């Protein structure tokens, strides 16, 4: 069984740029959730995808968008990057619509300068 | 509003001492409560959930709905317990399994 993987590990971008982060879900899982973890804070829910459809969204602006593919892998896209977007981005995969245990990836560290 | 509060950023104890990591929540309804742990250089992982009422690595947590608390306890701390601990809440209704995390408590177990 393959665990949740994320790429890239680290990323440095300039304010105003766009970024795409990727997540491969654990085998057998059809739900992916994305979280933003700022330094010294707990993870904050961005959104969730279930069977390629958005299945809930946290308090993040529309410039945060996502996709889920038929193989249940997922992308997080952030447009018009701001300095405050610097954070660790975590994805978690689970089975079922909302109720399953979430297995977390190692995260992507995004730095916006 | 749904909220999880972990009042201590750092808890430092000696090996063999009892540990209690505090967690309070704000939620109307029937939440699910979890404890997640992150060891150094490892990913976030589930430690335990209130509905299973199990003991993992000697840790237990009881949901107290009257006090809206879900404190994590261990009678005798071990050095390998040193890690970051997050309390999290999941709504018991609806079909979005989003987790609401507290800010986390660093547990430092000294030899």
Protein described:
The complex is a heterodimer of chains A (113) and B (111). Chain A has 113 residues and is mostly beta strands. Helix content of chain A is 0%, strand content 50%. Chain A is built from no helices and 11 strands. In chain A, strands 2, 4, 5, 6, 9, 10 and 11 form a 7-stranded mixed β-sheet that branches. In chain A, strands 1-3-8-7 form a 4-stranded antiparallel β-sheet, with no helix packed on it. The mean pLDDT of chain A is 93. Chain B is mostly beta strands and 111 residues long. Chain B is 0% helix and 43% strand. Chain B is built from no helices and 11 strands. In chain B, strands 2, 5, 6, 9, 10 and 11 form a 6-stranded mixed β-sheet that branches. A 3-stranded antiparallel β-sheet of chain B has the order 3-8-7, with no helix packed on it. In chain B, a hairpin with a 6-residue loop joins strand 5 and strand 6. Chain B starts with a strand and ends with a strand. The model of chain B has no long low-confidence stretch (mean pLDDT 91).
Topology, please?
The complex is a heterodimer of chains A (113) and B (111).
Chain A: E1 5-7, E2 10-13, E3 19-24, E4 31-37, E5 44-50, E6 53-57, E7 64-68, E8 74-78, E9 87-94, E10 103-104, E11 108-112
Parallel strand pairs in A: 2-11
Antiparallel strand pairs in A: 1-3, 3-8, 4-5, 4-9, 5-6, 7-8, 9-10, 9-11
Chain B: E1 3-5, E2 10-14, E3 19-21, E4 24-26, E5 32-38, E6 45-49, E7 60-61, E8 72-74, E9 83-90, E10 99-101, E11 105-110
Parallel strand pairs in B: 2-11
Antiparallel strand pairs in B: 1-4, 3-8, 5-6, 5-9, 7-8, 9-10, 9-11
């Amino acid at each position: 069984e393959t665990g949740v993987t994320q790429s890239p590990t680290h990323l440095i971008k300039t304010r105003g740029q766009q970024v795409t982060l990727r997540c491969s879900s654990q085998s057998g899982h059809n739900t992916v959730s994305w979280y933003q973890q700022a330094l010294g804070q707990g993870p904050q829910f961005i959104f969730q995808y279930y069977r390629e459809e958005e299945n809930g969204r946290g308090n993040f602006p529309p410039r945060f968008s996502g996709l889920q593919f038929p193989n249940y892998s997922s992308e997080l896209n952030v447009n018009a990057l701001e300095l405050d977007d610097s954070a660790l981005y975590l994805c978690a995969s689970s089975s079922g619509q909302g109720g399953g245990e979430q297995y977390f990836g190692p995260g992507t560290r995004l730095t916006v300068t | 509003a749904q909220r999880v509060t972990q009042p201590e950023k750092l808890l430092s104890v000696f090996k063999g001492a009892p540990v209690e990591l505090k967690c309070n929540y704000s939620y109307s309804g029937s939440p699910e409560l979890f404890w997640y742990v992150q060891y150094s250089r490892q990913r976030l992982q589930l430690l335990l959930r209130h509905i299973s009422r199990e003991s993992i690595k000697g840790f237990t947590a009881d949901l107290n709905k009257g006090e809206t608390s879900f404190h994590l306890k261990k009678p005798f701390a071990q050095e390998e317990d040193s890690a970051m601990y997050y309390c999290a809440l999941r709504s018991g209704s609806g079909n979005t399994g989003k987790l609401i995390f507290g800010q986390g408590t660093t547990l430092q177990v000294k030899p």
